[in-house]
Design a protein that fits this description.
alpha/beta; Rossmann fold; 5-stranded parallel sheet
Length: 329
């Protein structure tokens, strides 16, 4: 009879999935983000985009099921059961979304039409909401974050459904920098071919020519058309300076509970340090979605040519919205 091997087994390195499941509740890595990181590392751009498109329907069905379950368990706790966030890309909307979604019962939903529009056109900042969008969410607790513009149509869809909403944007120069690093490292992004392999100045000029004017129009559309009785405008810079105050305003708009120190605890739970895996604000990781977490980083990347292009396209916008006093920057 062969001798029994009693030596201890060689420990194996935990897999990514093991690490995810072992993380404390509330601080686990976002499974979607984990899959996106794996896709980014191992699939070529064309296959990455196909994988992203194929996942849309399954994700939507899973999200709706979670929203129905949330309603059954917590629906009686809320007067507002559909919450809507319209955010300019790379302006802190995911940060705000995660904080709101932490209220028990609420879950994020992205309708497949907007995902398809983004994959087909390169963005969703010009997307018009389906007229029946909010009637789909009967007996659900829904948080819908989109990058859609404030067209008269979209504002009317929100008004008819009596859906309150938060609008979020930031300095377009910082948007450009954050967008460049994100898109250049995201093979499935429809704009990836325009940024792949470019250095920072070339990427920022690409953004200026392809996107800057449309993003300025996006901010103006919400400024001109939103209903102030049903909405709140927040700038990313305000969230950095007073996250607790901004989140308290959001909770008031959406009639969310504000007992004790819950808002302060919530903001701390989703601080940059915790969302970035331990980095302090200002410590950059170019390959991560949560990259740097500061305002004004554009000054470290803008060359004279880039400054000139941005002044030509959005110089007056920056003055009108208080980011500059004149063109001398």
């Amino acid at each position: 009879m062969p001798p029994t091997n009693t030596s201890p087994a060689t420990p194996t390195k935990p897999s990514r999935v093991d690490t995810l499941l072992a993380a404390p509740k509330g601080l686990r890595t976002n499974p979607t983000a984990t899959l996106e990181n794996l896709t980014r590392q191992f699939l070529p751009p064309s296959l990455a985009r196909l994988a992203k498109r194929a996942a849309v329907g399954h994700r939507y069905r899973s999200q709706l099921n979670a929203c129905r379950r949330g309603y059954r368990e917590h629906g009686a706790d809320y007067s507002q059961r559909i919450l809507f966030v319209a955010g300019l890309p790379k302006s802190g909307t995911t940060w705000l979304e995660k904080m709101i979604a932490s209220f028990p019962g609420f879950h994020e939903v992205l309708i497949p039409e907007v995902a398809a529009h983004e994959l087909a056109t390169g963005g969703s900042h010009d997307f018009d909401l389906p007229a029946d969008m909010f009637s789909r969410f009967d007996e659900m607790l829904v948080l819908s974050k989109m990058h859609v513009h404030g067209s008269k149509h979209n504002v009317e869809v929100l008004r008819k459904a009596d859906v309150r909403h938060v609008v979020l944007f930031r300095d377009l120069r910082d948007v450009a920098v954050s967008n460049f690093f994100y898109v250049r490292n995201t093979p499935w992004h429809p704009e990836y071919p325009h940024y792949a392999g470019k250095d920072v100045p070339a990427g920022l000029l690409t953004f200026a020519l392809r996107t800057l004017g449309a993003y300025a129009d996006w901010v103006r559309s919400w400024h001109d058309n939103r209903d102030p009785e049903r909405s709140l405008v927040i700038r990313y810079e305000q969230m950095l300076a007073d996250g607790v105050g901004c989140m308290a305003d959001v909770a008031t708009l959406f009639d969310l509970p504000r007992e004790g120190n819950s808002i302060a605890e919530l903001v701390d739970r989703f601080s940059f340090k915790k969302m970035s895996g331990g980095r302090d604000r200002g410590q950059q990781n170019e390959g991560q979605f949560v990259r740097k977490g500061v305002a004004g980083d554009w000054v470290n990347h803008f060359t004279p040519d880039v400054r000139g292009a941005f002044k030509d396209i959005a110089g007056q916008f920056l003055i009108d919205f208080g980011y500059e006093r004149d063109m001398d920057w």
